[in-house]
Amino acid sequence: MSAPPPATAERPAPASKPPPPTKTVAGYSVPGEGPSLAISIVTVIAIFALWWVATHFGWIRDIFLPTPERIAGSFVEAWRGDIQGGKPLWEHFWWSLVRVFAAFVFACVTAIPAGIAMGVSRVARGIFDPPVEFYRPLPPLAYLPLIVIWFGIEETAKIVLIYLACFAPLAMAARAGVKSVMIEQISAAYSMGASKWQVIWHVIIPAAMPEIFTGMRIAIGFCWTTLVAAEMVAATAGLGQMVLNASNFLRTDVVIMGIVVIGAVAYAFDLLMRYIERLVVPWKGRA
User: Fold this and answer.
1) Per-residue model confidence (pLDDT) at position 163
2) In sequence order, which residues have a C-beta less than 8 Å from that of residue 125 and are 6 or more positions away?
3) What's the half-sphere exposure (Cβ side, CA atoms, 13 Å) at 130?
4) What CA–CA distance (Å, rounded) separates 158 from 99?
5) Which of 38, 43, 188, 258 is placed for a possible disulfide with 243 were both Cys, Cβ 3.0 to 4.6 Å?
């Protein structure tokens, strides 16, 4: 008989490494997400504080930048009509509002369908693309004399000038919105028996609405920036006319007050557009 194998000592099991420490990862978020109201308030306060210090300590001459108190006083004077022209501020504001929103509404009614047509039809793209791309880079002052020759110096010329300034961004935004629609959505609608017009109405237009609202916000900004140029055409009332008239008499306080009013109204309307956008396209940014 063979001898039994020699007994061997049991080897100790290798010591296991301790598990790596777990990291607590905060929830992921989209870059730029979060409230910014407090930052905006601090920024505005800082700007006003710098303005007050610069004007009260004589860093800037009063003719170049009046004190905030003078701006507030000029607002009261303008509201009562105690400025050049004799018309109160609310009348200037009313005329500017009518011109801007008449042009903006007319542009929305025409430019948005034109942009959608450019996105869904090569024929419409071939018709509208050359003239829109040609005049889009032109500043309104470049074709202002032509507008005056064609439409005279009445209200029509002012509204047409503002209308042309906001038509191109609206049409381009609507076209970009149509092009941003995913082909899978269109194919799914066709596979369920939808017609071309049903696809356009129920798929393409809702999907393009975020881009269209962005174009509307940009276009209303162009409306207000073109307002001063439009009211150069024989206007007797309007915020732009009030600013131009005050600049002729070196009333810097009235000029800055008019700029503040125009900016505040434009910003208020932009906030309104954002609110309407959240109601109409609540899915924006959540896909």
Assistant:
1) 93
2) 117, 118, 119, 175
3) 4
4) 7
5) 258
- Domain boundary assignment for the chain: 61-280
Residue 8, SS3 per DSSP:
coil
* 11 has a pLDDT exceeding 80: no
pLDDT of residue 246: 85
Q: Read off the pTM.
A: 0.77
CA distance 260 to 71: 9
Reduced 3-state DSSP string for the chain: CCCCCCCCCCCCCCCCCCCCCCCCCCCCCCCCCCCCHHHHHHHHHHHHHHHHHHHHCCCCCCCCCCCHHHHHHHHHHHHHCCCCCCCCHHHHHHHHHHHHHHHHHHHHHHHHHHHHHHHHCHHHHHHHHHHHHHHCCCCHHHHHHHHHHHHCCCHHHHHHHHHHHHHHHHHHHHHHHHHCCCHHHHHHHHHCCCCHHHHHHHHHHHHHHHHHHHHHHHHHHHHHHHHHHHCCCCCCCCHHHHHHHHHHCCCHHHHHHHHHHHHHHHHHHHHHHHHHHHHHCCCCCCC
CATH of 61-280, one of 2.30.110.10, 1.10.3720.10, 1.10.8.190, 3.40.920.10: 1.10.3720.10
Nearest to 112 by CA among 150, 72, 166, 156: 166
DSSP class of residue 84 equals T
